[in-house]
Structures are given as C-alpha cells and as structure tokens.
Amino acid sequence: MAGGAWGEGHGMTVTDMPAPHATVTQQLVGLGPARGEHPALVGGSAAWPGRTLSHAALAVILQTAAVGLAWRGLRAQDVVGVHVPDAVSYVLAVHAIRAAGGVPSPICGASPVARMADQLTDCGARLLITADPHVAAALSAADGSWVRQVISFDEEAGTIQFCSLLSRGLRAPVFAGHMDLALLPYTSGPDGRLRAEPVTHGQLAGELSRLSATAPITDRDVVLAAPPNGNGRDYTMLLDLALLQGATVVATCADDLPDAAREHGGTAAIVHPGTPIPAGLPLRAVTTAC
Predict the structure, then answer these.
(1) For range 52-71, the mean pLDDT
(2) How much is the average pLDDT of 31-35?
(3) Is 18 within the bounds of a domain?
(4) What pTM was estimated for this model as a whole?
C-alpha cells in the first residue's frame, strides 16, 4: 500500500465510494456525466485544448479510446506497457487500456532500455503507450520485445498518435470480474531479476476501500501529482482514489509544487518519499514508494 499518511485535512469527509462490483474505470465513466465540467485532469503531455479535461470529457475519451484500442487488436486481458512522464498521460493510458478490457503494465521512467524490453517480453505486450521524453527509449525497447505498435501522446515518427484512437465511435468499458487482472506491475526480486506482481480488480477494490479511510479527499480537493515512478502500484491507487472521489488531478513535479499550488489552488499532493513540501503551502501530502 501507499506509504505515509495524509496530514491534517480541512474538516472534509470522504465521499461514498461507488458500487464495488464495477471496475474503477466503469465507475469513472458512470460518474462522469453527473460531474459535468468539474475538472478531472490538468496539464501533462496530452495535447488537449486548454490542457484541462473535465470528468465528463474524461468519461467520453475513455470510451472512445477503448474502441480505438480494440480496433488496434487489443483484447480482454491483453497486457499493454505504459511508459509515460506525467500523471495526466498516465491516467489516460491506464484507464483507456482498462476500458478496452486490457491490463496496464507500468514501466518505471528510469528503467534502462534493456530492462524495459525484458518487462515487455515477459508480460507478452504487443502494445506500448508512451509520450515525450520517453518516446525514443520506448521505441528502442519495443524493438527488443514482442511489441508491434507504439502509441504516443505526441506526434513522433514510428508511433501512432493517441488522438487517432478517438475517431471510431464510443462504447461502455469492458466488464471485468474480481479475479481478472487490473494492473501488472513489476519489481526486482532478490536476485535482481524482474518479477511480476499482478493486482486483480477485486484486490484493487479492497485496497482502494482501505485507502479511502485514511485519505480524506473529496471533490473539493485539487491534488498535485508528481510524475510516475517505480512499479506504479501505489501511484495508480492514489490517482484512482482521487478521481473516484471527484477531485481534480494536476500533473506537476516536485520542483514546481509551490507554483502549481498557487496557480491551481492545490490542497493535496501525491509525491515520492523524501520530497519536501515547502513551508507555507496548504498541502496535505501522501508519499508513494512505487
């Protein structure tokens, strides 16, 4: 689970979690229309007009991206690599994959190309989603694995643009059972070799329920999120929790926390261990080791 704990809040209570039988992606899509234009994602490498996506727009994009990924050959429980530099592109990639019935496998941003290729080969990924500045490394890793299609949030030679996935219609997210995989993170074993640590939808739902009891976050929160790092397990859960509760997630980095907090009215931050929260910022912080 995510390390650390949220500090003293603002007297807010945690909103009720949606029905546990639905996947997180199904819940986000179902909640999107009622939340309307309330911002869900801000900033990041995804080139959206105004660089802000509402909860309603996020729901539509996930449903259209699911059609595009299926057209590209993604089938239920297929694994897709995710190697992106910021929280916004991470959320879009992970939930687009889940909406199509696939399983995201986060790749640490600092991984050498050979290690990335080993992970992609081990999980059998045929698709990889990436964005600058990771595109060159992603293409090199794809060449050393079974990956045949690299999808990018940027216009880069040798890649398929993510926005091209959004032109083939719209469909509800694919149903997944509690025992189906929701995430496939990798860690290093005692011998230094990569080791898969699969997370099912049932496990994800249980951990999110427990996390909601210790992370007081509501739709009034603006959560500043550092770039993805490590194997992505805790990071994914914290982002999922924030979005389920209707919060706004802003992609930023540790050095930009003060400016981002002032510009967006940040109230909380998802940061990595050891990241200092500058004095005077009204931020509650949670650290994530993964």
Answers:
(1) 97
(2) 97
(3) no
(4) 0.91
φ, ψ for residue 216, nearest 5 deg: -70, 95
pLDDT (0 to 100) of residue 192: 83
Domain limits for position 264? 24-287
Is residue 42 one of the residues assigned to a domain?
yes
Residue 167 φ/ψ, nearest 5 degrees:
-115, 15
When pLDDT is averaged across residues 190-216 and rounded to a whole number, the result is: 91
Rounded distance, CA 138 to CA 145, Å? 11
Helix axes 87-99, 24-35, angle to 10 degrees: 110
Cα–Cα distance for residue pair 39/132, rounded to 1 Å: 24
Handedness of CA 143, 148, 153, 154 (dihedral sign): positive
Owner of token pair 């640590």: 197
What contacts 234, CB < 8 A, 6 or more positions away?
1, 2, 3, 288, 289, 290
